[in-house]
Amino acid sequence: MGNPFLIEKSYTVRHKILEFLHKDWNANGNNYERRIGSIKIASDTNIPIAEIHKWQHLLVEKGEIVVSDNDGQIMMSLSTSGTSAYIDRKYLKEGKKEKWDNIFAWARILIPLGALLLSILNYINNNSQANKIKSIQEKLKIKE
Question: Do the Cβ atoms of 35 and 77 come closer than 8 Å?
């Protein structure tokens, strides 16, 4: 589990891939048959090509992109469900949900631990105060 306050990188990479494909799709007459090379996506989005190849299989599994091989270069095209996923910001929403789930998971651990720690400190403080009061009472009885 990484930093619970950040969206996991896989969600943002998938969204950026869909964003690039969607913008290209819009710019080229809404043609779902248009294929873009992973090298072009990597150079235009500054996402390392290894990251694109690492996460593209999830987009293929969901049917959001179609992938083909063109002499060793991965070629991608957007599908209709990929368009919907991009417009709905599906992966950013999933990433934010996971982020909050991680924060709540940490909170479920830290809040009870904090309460236990405060209880122990309160017990020690009360015990110390009780001992001081007893000591003062004994001193007052001796002087009387």
Answer: yes
Q: Report whether 34 contacts 28 (CB < 8 A).
A: yes
Residue 1 is assigned to a structural domain of this protein: no
Structure tokens at 76: 């991608």
Q: Are 33 and 77 in contact (CB under 8 A)?
A: yes
Overall domain count for the chain: 1
Please tell me the pTM assigned to this model: 0.74
Q: Which domain holds residue 80?
A: 9-143
- HEC secondary structure over 21-88: HHHHHHHCCCCCCCCEEHHHHHHHHCCCHHHHHHHHHHHHHCCCEEEEEECCEEEEEECHHHHHHHHC
pLDDT tens-digit series, residues 68-100: 887 777 889 999 999 999 999 999 999 999 999
Q: Identify which of 58, 26, 24, 61 has the alpha carbon closest to the alpha carbon of residue 41.
A: 24
pLDDT in tens, 107-136: 999 999 999 999 999 999 988 888 888 888
Tell me which H or E stretch contains 75: strand 73-78
Q: How far apart are CA 35 and CA 76, in angstroms?
A: 5
